Amino acid sequence: MERDVQEILLDRVQIAAKVKELGKKISEDYRGKDLLVVGILKGAIMFMADLVREIDIPITVDFMAVSSYGQSTESSGAVRILKDLEVSVEGKNVLIVEDIVDTGLTLRYLLENLKSRHPASVRVCTLLDKPSRRQVEVSPDYNGFEIPDKFVVGYGLDYAEQYRHLPYIAVLKPEAYGREE
Ligand code: PRP
Ligand code: MN
Ligand code: MG
């Protein structure tokens, strides 16, 4: 196990089972419809890659990159688009794929931004939901796990751009924060 990890909250087996379940549900709900799946970089990379492989209807994929956290563990509240979609969402059924909904600020921004482009529908699928931290009222349509108010890393989620590659969701040891490498 990675030396900075204190506790594994969700291991790869638990994640894989949940991703499979979510993919099945999404496939059923959108069968016979066009679906554009939008992964939110960078946190959603692994969830997106695993989730689309559990969807058994025709889809298209695209990505947006937004950032609010910067190098901190706390949200600054200001969301920036770092990379926009390459395709138009007008008239399409859009499914936003996020790794985590925390304060909800990122998601609220994404929803408002995408809805202004006149899609047929917009829904949200997140792997993790931390409702205790919510600052704005948003709720995902598909949610993998509700988690407690702990800062988590791995499976795409970072602390200061590190730990995204871990194949599980984990809590770091206190000494892992603010360490100069
Ligand atoms: C993280 C995470 C979500 C967002 C959730 O992204 O991936 O996108 O924060 O937080 P919120 O609900 O409080 O807005 P981050 O801005 O760290 O960028 P990243 O995905 O590139 O790590
Ligand atoms: Mn993110
Ligand atoms: Mg981040």
Automatic annotation (TrEMBL):
UniProt cross-references to Pfam families, sorted A to Z: Pribosyltran (PF00156)
GO BP of this protein: GMP salvage; guanine salvage; hypoxanthine metabolic process; IMP salvage; purine ribonucleoside salvage
One annotated Gene Ontology cellular component of this protein: cytosol
Phosphoribosyltransferase domain span: 7-159
Cofactors named for this entry: Mg(2+)
EC number from the UniProt entry: 2.4.2.8
Superkingdom in the source lineage: Bacteria
Catalytic reactions on record: IMP + diphosphate = hypoxanthine + 5-phospho-alpha-D-ribose 1-diphosphate; GMP + diphosphate = guanine + 5-phospho-alpha-D-ribose 1-diphosphate
Keyword list, A-Z: Cytoplasm, Glycosyltransferase, Magnesium, Metal-binding, Nucleotide-binding, Purine salvage, Transferase
InterPro entries: HGPRT, Hxn_phspho_trans, PRTase-like, PRTase_dom
Repeat in keyword set: no
GO molecular function: guanine phosphoribosyltransferase activity; hypoxanthine phosphoribosyltransferase activity; magnesium ion binding; nucleotide binding
Subcellular location, record wording: Cytoplasm
Functional pathway: Purine metabolism; IMP biosynthesis via salvage pathway; IMP from hypoxanthine: step 1/1; Purine metabolism; GMP biosynthesis via salvage pathway; GMP from guanine: step 1/1
Keyword Nucleotide-binding annotated: yes
Predominant location category: cytoplasm
Role played: Purine salvage pathway enzyme that catalyzes the transfer of the ribosyl-5-phosphate group from 5-phospho-alpha-D-ribose 1-diphosphate (PRPP) to the N9 position of the 6-oxopurines hypoxanthine and guanine to form the corresponding ribonucleotides IMP (inosine 5'-monophosphate) and GMP (guanosine 5'-monophosphate), with the release of PPi.
Protein family membership: Belongs to the purine/pyrimidine phosphoribosyltransferase family.
Descriptive protein name: Hypoxanthine phosphoribosyltransferase
